[in-house]
Ribosome biogenesis GTPase A (Herbinix luporum), 285 residues
Amino acid sequence: MNVQWYPGHMAKAKRMMQENIKLIDVVIELVDARIPISSKNPDIDSLAANKSRVILLNKYDMADPKYNDLWKSYFDDKGYYTALINSKSGEGVKEIKDIVYKACQEKLERDRRKGIKNRPIRAMIVGIPNVGKSTFINSFVGRATAKTGNKPGVTKGKQWIRLSSKIELLDTPGILWPKFEDPAAGMRLAFIGSINDNIIQMTELALELILFLNKYYPDAIKKRYDIEVPQEMEVIKDCIGTLEQIALKRSCLMKGGEADIERAAKIVLDDFRNVRLGRITLEFP
Ligand code: GDP
């Protein structure tokens, strides 16, 4: 699901976020474990100021196990409550209720001192498109829950899902825009398929990916396509030969018998996005 953002979309998303965030105690932010920084919304910190914060590193099954715990520690050290999860299989999802509850302890203490008892914690899921919000909500909510319906003081039409006697979840996630300004972040988002492929140059993107892989995962391309890859690659031009080899190996030929690198580019990106090049993390703490 690729989404394009226009200034109008962004303004509307921001407005909805500001409106909804007043109602909630804890923001549960999903990021992609392969790009935990590039997949973070640039404005979430100001939007969620003074709220309890949970960061879930989703799709950890697609990311390099070597870096998953490092990234978790990175966010732990910044004071977030965190977890590595696979929303698709449900791994790690059961534990999230406890984490959310812990993240709100201080708030609950304050309530208690003010004489407020048994008020459920209200949580909201947020994240950029495609990060796994719907999959996570389905897994998190499971079957044994019921919608609680409208309540006085709650914006009309809002539905809360009761997760336990202690936690309620806003049923619709907050969809936030990704980082547009930073070109490196944009490229990583494009690698994982979160930016509309129509608006980016696939061949150039595949060359960038090969350049990255050659530096950090030198065996990934070799192993997948059974080709020799030059050790020295400095700029994307140096990767064209590799893309040509992949084209030949996969019988992607043009009419004259030349390597069709455009088709090879699509194969490489598709293989990467489906974890056929291995579990790869694209940025490091
Ligand atoms: P949303 O746009 O944030 O609601 O994202 P979706 O829930 O629609 O998920 C986008 C895609 O990512 C879907 O194809 C999901 O099956 C997949 N997905 C979500 N979470 C995970 C995960 O933890 N691991 C893997 N491998 N795939 C996931």
